[in-house]
Write a structure and sequence with these properties.
single chain; alpha+beta; Phosphatase 2c, domain 1; five-stranded antiparallel sheet; rod-shaped
């Protein structure tokens, strides 16, 4: 607004000053011609002292606008001061025109309200006045004009003077309308600019928040005796699904035990992401204190945390905790209200792993059951888990994919390469879904390669030592 006002103020004062220079120049030519004897009158007015007074008023009027132009050109001014100065200049302009008409000076036929109408309308076209500011300027000049018309200063009172004073109000109506229209347009443009700028700031903040949020997710593990991969599709830039991984070597030096936690916070967007951030810190603390903590105990501690800190805000969490020990060919899991997972065995059979307890934060410690289930997890087996964004996907008829739909995809997709199930499932979900996702979607796959280091071949030293023992006497 400051740069706009300064630029428009210079345009306004420059144009009015140029008009003043031209008018004064013509008047000077006429006066000079009269003084040299070439002219005795200018129009119907004799060249006398009154003509010189008129010339002085024109010069003063011109100097006022030129001074305003110079004042705004060489210094940076406060917006409020420049607005007040523009209003003052136009008021003085109007008062000078009223004075010229009231004093009956020569060459003042176009003065009075017609002269003020020109200045006022030009000002509203260039200066970013509000309607209130335009009415203040017009009211000051119209009030003085009405006083001059209706008092003995301008002759005796007549009804013609009264109605003439009322009629002059119509001259400022176009300027007030222009001020209203331009003020409304500026308001809409400034609001749009503000919203656009604020949207850009929020978008950049969300981009940074998503980068921080996704930094909490682990990198896929494609080597070792137990591996995992996943695909995450947030509904918005950041979401409420989360995956936590903890891998720790066994005490006997055998293969690493892998613990996987899948969480789904109620809600979407920033509130859910903030909740995930808090749960991330709590999970990091739990596994730092006990890397081999059992899934049921993890859910019990998380339930207490959610119950005490988030349930009062109607925030709840579904959770699935899995621990795989390749040395025992065993998978231990606990499910707190999370959608059923699937255990795909090496022979192609599929077992559904249902919930074992309530969702986190719904009940207190005494009611919460931290039940843990153990199943065999051999070489070639796979474990598929997902969040409800996959099962709640709807087609054009409004039908949800559901758990049976997920199981149908697993059964009908045939043999898949190791670690390819997340991409395959998300592809089928996107093909089934009508339109953009309605919820965050996370799909993970935990798998053991067909050939594992747990089935270790004996070394040459062991083979030869065994043969030596066998043939020794």
């Amino acid at each position: 607004m400051g740069s706009l006002l300064s630029r428009r103020f210079r345009w306004f004062t420059g144009i009015m000053g140029a008009l003043g220079v031209i008018s004064t120049g013509f008047l000077l030519v006429f006066v000079f011609a009269a003084l040299t004897g070439d002219l005795e009158t200018v129009g119907k007015h004799p060249v006398d002292g009154k003509m010189s007074l008129t010339l002085g008023v024109f010069v003063l009027w011109t100097v006022m606008y030129i001074a305003g132009f110079v004042y705004a050109s060489f210094r940076k001014h406060d917006t409020t001061k420049l607005v007040k100065l523009s209003m003052l200049i136009v008021i003085i302009d109007g008062l000078m025109n009223v004075a010229l008409r009231a004093s009956n000076l020569p060459l003042t036929e176009m003065s009075g309200m017609l002269g003020f109408f020109l200045s006022f309308t030009t000002a509203t076209c260039f200066l970013p006045w509000t309607v209130r500011q335009a009415i203040l300027v017009a009211g000051a000049v119209l009030g003085v004009n009405a006083f001059c018309r209706l008092t003995p200063i301008d002759g005796s009172f007549t009804w013609a003077s009264f109605f003439g004073a009322l009629a002059t109000m119509l001259l400022v109506m176009p300027g007030i309308f222009i001020a209203w229209y331009r003020s409304s347009s500026r308001l809409r443009e400034s609001q749009f600019y503000f919203l656009q700028r604020r949207y850009g700031e929020v978008r950049r903040e969300l981009t940074d928040a998503r980068r921080i949020h996704e930094a909490m997710f682990p990198a896929p593990q494609t080597s070792g005796d137990v591996r995992f991969t996943y695909r995450y599709q947030p509904m918005r830039q950041i979401g409420g699904d989360y995956l936590h991984i903890n891998s720790c070597p066994n005490h006997d030096g055998s293969q690493d035990t892998l613990s996987v936690v899948v969480l789904d916070v109620t809600g979407h967007g920033i509130p859910a992401a903030l909740t995930v951030n808090r749960l991330y810190g709590e999970l990091a603390r739990l596994y730092a204190e006990d890397p081999f903590i059992e899934p049921g105990e993890v859910l019990a501690l998380l339930n207490r945390y959610v119950r005490l800190t988030m349930a009062s805000h109607s925030v709840f969490v579904t959770g699935l905790v899995v621990k795989v020990d390749p040395s025992k060919h065993e998978m231990v899991y606990a499910n707190a209200g999370h959608p059923p997972a699937f255990h795909i065995r090496a022979d192609g059979s599929i077992d559904q792993i249902d919930s074992t307890t309530f969702l986190l934060g719904a009940v207190d410690d005494d009611t919460f059951e931290s039940k843990t289930v153990s199943v065999e997890f051999a070489n070639g087996d796979r474990f598929i888990a997902y969040t409800d964004g996959a099962t709640e996907a709807r087609n054009s008829d409004g039908k949800m994919l559901g758990i049976r739909g997920m199981q149908g995809i697993l059964s009908s997709s045939g043999l898949q390469a190791e670690g390819s199930w997340p991409a395959t499932l998300l592809g089928h979900v996107d093909a089934f879904r009508n339109g953009p996702p309605d919820d965050d979607t996370l799909v993970i796959e935990i798998y053991r390669p067909v050939s594992s280091s747990s089935q270790r071949m004996p070394s040459a030293r062991e083979v030869y030592s065994d043969d030596a023992e066998a043939i020794s006497p």
